[in-house]
Every structure is written in structure tokens, then in C-alpha cells.
Amino acid sequence: MHRSPARNLQIAFARVARAASLGAALSLCGICLGAGIQACSADSDRSGGKLVVLHTRVQVDETATATFTSASGWDVTLTLAWVSTGPLYYFDGAPPLVRRERREAWQYAARFLGLGEAHAHPGHYQAGNALGQMLGAQSVDLLDGPADLPDGDGISGVYRSARFSFVPPSGRGAGALDGHVALAEGRAEKAGESPRFFRAFADMKSVEKSATEGHIEGCEFREHDVESDGTVTVTVNPKIWFELVDFSEAEAGSAGAPAEFPEDSQPQLAFVLGTTQLSAYKFSFDAR
Amino acid sequence: MSRPHSFCSLLAAALCAGLGNVACSSSDPTGSGGHGTLSFTTWGEDYVELQIPPASGERTGFVDGWTVEYRKFLVNFGNVRVADAKGNQAAFMDGSMLFDNHVKGVKSIVDFEGVAAKAWPAVSYEIAPVTRDTKLSDSATEDDKQLMLDGGYSFYVDATATKGAVSEHFSWGFTIGTRYRECHSLQDGKDEAGVVVRNNSRVDVELTTHGDHLYYDRLQASSDPAIPTSLRFDTLAEADEDKDGELTLEELDAAPLNVKLYDPSGLGAVTQGAFVTSLARTVGHFRGEGECTISAP
Prior knowledge:
Shape of chain B: globular
Structural class of chain A: alpha+beta
Strand content of chain B: 35-45%
Distance between the termini of chain A: 38 Å
Number of helices of chain A: 8
Strand order of the largest sheet of chain A: 11-8-4-5-7-1-12-14
Low-confidence stretches of chain A: 1-48, 99-123
Radius of gyration of chain A: 21 Å
Structural class of chain B: alpha+beta
Oligomer: heterodimer
Number of helices of chain B: 6
Shape of chain A: elongated
Number of domains of chain A: 2
Order of helices and strands of chain A: HHHEEEEHEEEEHEEHEEHEHE
Number of strands of chain B: 14
Distance between the termini of chain B: 35 Å
Helix content of chain B: 10-25%
Radius of gyration of chain B: 21 Å
Number of strands of chain A: 14
Mean pLDDT of chain B: 88
Number of domains of chain B: 1
Largest sheet of chain B: 9 strands, mixed
Helix content of chain A: 10-25%
Largest interface: A-B, 82 and 72 residues
Order of helices and strands of chain B: HEHEEEEEEHEEEEEEHHHE
């Protein structure tokens, strides 16, 4: 019988709890997450040892609710901002300074022999041990105030980083996203330029070019020693989505008919890259 | 949807069962006791000593036809540390030593003698700003050290990029400090964390510097096989705003990241200068192609 990954993790948590060997099992989880051989040592006495309920909430960063200035000097005012969120995972590994993927043996050899293309292999983010999760998916109107997501679960421990994930929109609110995973509308202004009324979107396929499977790995989780039930808040900052966008290459549009960024244009590529930046998704915990 | 972390327990158990004492036993893989010597060295590879060529056929290089030749590649190594999985320290090099890896050959950083013969999976080091106490290797000069001190640099390159009749000279100093920890490498076809010391043996541990990393167009490989990671210089050269043939970090900082060619891979660089600085953290490697987790010191 095939079970979803989410169901399997739920079962794993439950089994672990019943067996009262939480720490050992979660240390073993580190293997899957890149902790490698160290995890095999099964540091069983590090157990936080307590299951916790993690209520989950999504909210918009306040900077995006008023006019903000992008890195390229455009004053941007959003009138619409939607996102389609998927499962969230929380880890004890610190967020990265730079990222990399672990290479296969042939990739080491290829560079050594001077063959093939270069492989980006900067120092890597190690998620460490998985401590918690929220497995639901939801389409969220960010400018409509905080939205509650389904409850998640986890174990006590020090939470330091997180995975945000995009999924194709479904359920209530999906219609507003029109099949995209992120959508924003608004006005951009800059001295000497005509205003731009825009409708920007990112779809799953384009996001996956930068974020494998739509996962934004290594987001900052404001470090917190979680000891009891509480609420995980995901703060989404659409300002970051626009940091790289050069609106001078966007069509003017109008308030009633905002212009979409043309395919493969600088604004379109930049917006999609913006949705994959770690700093657009910050996590925190409150013991309430 | 992602592969499950949910399978972790079972997978880990299977891995441990399958790999036996190679990867998962807590016992000493060398077994026999005794002592050995750890010899830490550094080398810049041909890319730093000779040149980074244009890509040609299957040869890796700049995809846009540039060649880069270094004149200086100054790296300040320090705080080399060797420990076991529990943090018990076997060896530590306090302070730092400055190297010019453009000077040919493998250079000695430090030798640790009498290290217990066993696995030492936790190896770390730093590339940190030069201080008055920084020692000089034979490859670096007092002038080099003064230059690094004056700028507060940990890493400095002086190089010329050429493409046909066009050339760009650049001298970039980076003030960032970077700690490389949990280093691992491929040894005999297997991924090895840190180093394994065997009785009466000498282990060479090379802290290799990769001179090509400053020119990558992304910080993380795309999962789309149609999007390779490439070495580029066209966009950097275009940032030479006054067209004086001298490309400064300030000019790169003023150049918005070219999103048609570059991907900041989530780390938020919005200018070419910020991107190059992020890449500068990645020059440090371990035993050739091995890698480490990167953090602030």
C-alpha cells in the first residue's frame, strides 16, 4: 500500500513517541537530511523528548503593506498578493550563508578531469534534524490579514531553520491564483518614469528552475527552544519578490488593466527569482 | 511533493545495517591504536597558478570566451581544528598564516604529529582577515601582509581577464571571514568525513582553493538539467562603468544582478558585487574537491 510522505512522517512521529525513543529516531532522520555519517552515531541522549502541537499561521511582512522602495529604486504599492503554500518543515540546523547541493562521485571526477560544465558547489546548508512539520496546503490572500493553516506537529528542541514550499494552488482561494503559486498586483513609480501598473506571477515550473520541487530550503527560523505547544508564524515578505525587478522594462498598463510581465523579460525572470529568496519567508514560534 | 523525511528512521536503520561498521559503527575504524601525523597544506590548482581558459569542447572554462590569469591569490588560513564526533580535540592551529596560492606548488600550513590513530570526522578551518599576529608563509611577502592589513582582507585577488583585444584588470579584496566546518571529501571512492589517521602514517590534508568560483553564474546547481552552471565574465566586464579597463568591486556593487544569466540561489544578492562576494566564501575546499559547511567565524 502506498502512503503519502506526509502520512509516513506522521506515523514515524507517533511510533517514535510510543517507543519513547524520540531523540534517537530524529537523530537518524539527520541522515536523510544530509547530516551524513555523524547521524549514524545515534546520539540518543540529545532527545528533546516531547511531542508538541504546532498551530500554524501565515502573515504578510508589514513592509509590504505600505509603499516600499525596491533595490532598483522603484516605489511599489501592492494591491494584491497571493501565495500557494505547501508543507512546511522545521529543523535544528542553522540557516545557510551560501548553499550547495551534495555532489555525486562522478561530478568530483568531472571537475578533476576538466570535463563538462562547472558545478556550483559552494559550502552547504545542512538542515540537520527534522523537528516539526505542517503538512497542509492553502491559498493565502496575504493582504487580507493573518491566515491560519492546519495544525502541525513536532518535538521539543531548538528550531533554527525551515523549509517553505510552493504547491500548485488548490481548494478555497485557488481561483484567485489562476494556477500560479505566487501572484501580486500593484503600482510602481519612479521619478522620471511613467507609473507601471503590473500583474506579476510565478508558476510552479518557473520556480522549480531555482528551487527544486518548489522547496525554499534554509529559511530563517528565529531561534527558539520549543518546549511546549505553540504557534509557528510564517511571515511572507512580497517586497523581496520585487527586489530584482527592473520596472523600466515593464509595460505601463493601467489601474484597470495591469500589465503582465512578458515571458522571459527581465521583470518576469526577476520576479520569479524573488519568490525563491530565503529572506522572503521567515519563521518564528510563540508559545501560545 | 518531497521525498519523505518520514522514511528517515527506516532508511537510517537500513543504511546502518547495510553499511556496517564502515559508516555506522561507533567503533574506531582503524582499530589498531598508535599515532600518526597530519600534514595540512594548501594549493591553488592550475586555475590559480596558470589560468582559467575559455571553455572549449569538453574543457571547462569561461563559456563567453574570457581567460583569467591571476597575479596574486592571497588567502589567510587559520584556526585549523581536528576533532572527533564528540568534540574531543586532536589538534588545533591557533592564529593564522598568509599564503599566495598563485605561487606554484603545494605549501605547508601546519603539521600535527602524534595524533591518535583513529577517525577524526570533525575538521574545520577559517579564512579570516589578516591580523598583526598573522604569520607569513614562504609564498607571501611583507607587502602582501600590509596590503591585507590595510584593507582588513581575508582573501584578495589580483588578476587580468582578457577576451580578444579587450582586457580588464581587477584587484578585489574581501573582508568577509568564513569558517569551513564538517569538511568531507571523496577518498577511495567513498565520502569520508574529516580524516582518518593510521598508525605510523602521514596523512596529507590539502586545503585547496578554487579560483574559478568567483565567476559562477549561480550559487546552487539548478534541478533543471537544461540549465548548467557556467563560468562567465561578460556581465562583470560590462560593469566597468568608466571603461578604464580597471574593474572594481564598487563598480560591481553598482551593477544590478543580471537575472537573465545569474541566479542568486535564494541568498538575496541584488548586485553583481554582492554575488561575487557570496561566491568568495566558497573558494575554500578540502582535499581537492571536498567540501565543508560554511558559516561565519
